[in-house]
Amino acid sequence: MDHTEPYALEVEPLEGRVSDGEWRTRVQLAAAFRIASHFGWNDTIGNHIAARIADAPDTMLINPRGLGWHEITASSLVKADLNGNFIGEPALRPGPAGFNFHSCILRMKPGIACTFHLHPLEGVVVSALEGGLQFFDQSSCALYDAVAYHDFEGLAQEAEEGPRIVADLGDKFAMIMWNHGLLTVGRTIGEAFEFMARLIAACEVQTRVLASGVAPRPMPPELGRHTNEQMQRRWANAPFGDLEWKMYMRLADRLDPSYRS
Fold first, then answer.
1. 20-251 is classed in which CATH architecture?
2. Which residues pair with 86 in a beta bridge?
């Protein structure tokens, strides 16, 4: 019987050794990974969330490939500049495909602070359906006329694809990558997280409605747009999902505060 100990990454605690702005970004980004894992959005070592460091906007944090999202901590996140150069000597590095387009989005869109990409089952299903996302419920109206699309080009490890993703995203905060998965961005980590939560939920509603075998009742376009306008007035003075993000942070603390280490 093999009694070899499972691989463990030795992570040097960084609290007090980096700026206050960087540490705050690290803690919030680690919380995003833990809550996404808790919701079952990602159960592999793949996929990434990246965030611009609050007081050093030309640098970013991203998860290393090799750690599950359930074990990410503030200190285990990898630091890099927006041109793809790692800062320090990380034991593990992010996957090249994800790192390429996350860094490109943050470099080309200075108003964006966070990028979020994953392959939840419901999102992959919708990405493979002709016509893309359909709208059937109130919650999904937060995304009405607000979802971009990007053609599948294989593994997104070619540097040239990043600008095409940015061009297709335009001024939107959510994207379905055809035959691939989901992408959201935000002016804060919480905003990108809440857009992803709404996008995954909308995909799940769609797949369940279409699987019911009953004729679907899509949202009338004029009602979808009206509801979206109502929602936009509610978050006009703050990033989308600001209150929800405070709740998610409290949830992360209750589940396992070790993410703060």
1. 3-Layer(aba) Sandwich (3.40)
2. 80
pLDDT at residue 224 in the model: 93
State the amino acid at position 31 in one-letter form. A
Q: What is the mean pLDDT of residues 200-229?
A: 95
Q: 């540490």: which residue's tokens? A: 23
Residue 98 — pLDDT band, cuts 50, 70, 90?
Answer: confident
Our measurement of the distance from residue 197's CA atom to the centroid of its chain's CA atoms, rounded to an integer in Å, reads: 9
Q: In sequence order, what DSSP letters do the residues of the chain get, joined into one string?
A: ---PPPP-------TTTS-HHHHHHHHHHHHHHHHHHHTTS--SS--EEEEEETTEEEEEEEPPTTS-GGG--GGGSEEEETTS-BSS--SS---HHHHHHHHHHHHH-TT--EEEEE--HHHHHHHTSTT-----STGGGGGTT-EEEE---SSTTSTTHHHHHHHHHTT-SEEEETTTEEEEEESSHHHHHHHHHHHHHHHHHHHHHHHT-SPP-PPPHHHHHHHHHHHHHHTTTS-TTHHHHHHHHHHHHHH-GGGG-
Residue spans per domain, the chain = 20-251
Written as six digits, the tokens of 59 are: 């640098």
Q: What is the pTM of this model?
A: 0.93
